[in-house]
């Protein structure tokens, strides 16, 4: 390829990637309509909004023909109050369009975190956010998120927005809002609260090592404040529902469904299917504690070694593993995970790395977990080895990702972190330019 043709390709690629993205989104929209998706979870959100407007008992409602309950904190129900004001068709159209835009935002934030805000290097320069979104929309977690009208992409984008403020993530504007994304995401869905633990641990480790703990602890503090503020607002508007939720309902994990269901891709679901029991009990608790500790350790290591994308995704994967219920559509963290492992495989080289990265990415496009028997008869309690393996793909992929993230963080080496109160030496641009000119003059003499 000549230099001129390479330049033309670079110049026209954004247009081609955008056209590919629009074409893929259009095909996706048609496919969802042909599949007759009902967006059942979106209908539950609408019922929650109606319950708030009518003053009904939020956690006593059962919505749709499946008798689905409300499982989110009360603050989420406040956000759903506009939904009953929309017609069903318009609501579904807006939800689909909004989720597609959020997928594009997820792709942009992922690439930005990987590069620290700098220009995208090869091969990411040839991938681009539109092309990434065009492919990712066909993965099982993203497809199912839009099929159900879920809010997983919103929650993930809120968290990744805050990850821009991590040390090593590059310059980020609007620091006064730092922490709002994580805090609001945790007020809507509790699992993003694990990111607060990650930030606190990173700050403590940085302080012990004599580094700058303030950026980590300040982000954690702000996230907690936003969470408490949103929760307090919900308590003021919905005191009865807030008391009911926080006094015990939030601990009732089985309200969301049976733990052994194939769609539950958390460790709890995996252990329930492995042991053929509806109550994995202490086995799950022990596994969750060990996995949570290991996952947070990997995230902290990656964060302190200026690998913000790996740190954020490791924490997100850990949250999915240790949560009592992680439905397959919750696994939209597979998008940044796939980009990270593919980029690392191309950068590091080796056929085995590339094969492993391709396999980890590809399994999220196979829909294999739906190949096994599932349904109200609870056949998952009687799975054979092959069925169990197919229904365990996501947690196994997450554990594999954590191993890769740990190895990447170790290879990154120790990063020099300024001590508290230590300000790196900086010079004005004009002074720096004069210094370069002087050095060049001396060299010529």
Structural features, described:
By secondary structure, this protein is an all-alpha fold. It has a domain at 251-410. It has 19 helices and no strands. It has helices at residues 3-34, 40-54, 74-79, 88-115, 128-136, 140-148, 152-163, 180-188, 194-208, 214-237, 239-246, 267-275, 281-304, 308-322, 334-348, 351-362, 385-390, 393-412, 429-444. The radius of gyration is 23 Å and the shape is globular. It comes from Streptomyces odorifer.
Beginning-to-end CA distance, first to last residue = 42 Å
Oligomeric status: single chain
Q: Strand-residue fraction?
A: under 5%
Helix-strand pattern: HHHHHHHHHHHHHHHHHHH
Topology of helices and strands:
Elements: H1 3-34, H2 40-54, H3 74-79, H4 88-115, H5 128-136, H6 140-148, H7 152-163, H8 180-188, H9 194-208, H10 214-237, H11 239-246, H12 267-275, H13 281-304, H14 308-322, H15 334-348, H16 351-362, H17 385-390, H18 393-412, H19 429-444
Descriptors:
445 residues, mainly alpha, globular, transmembrane, membrane, GT87, DUF2029 domain-containing protein
Question: Could you provide a short overview of the structure?
Answer:
The protein has helices at 3-34, 40-54, 74-79, 88-115, 128-136, 140-148, 152-163, 180-188, 194-208, 214-237, 239-246, 267-275, 281-304, 308-322, 334-348, 351-362, 385-390, 393-412, 429-444.
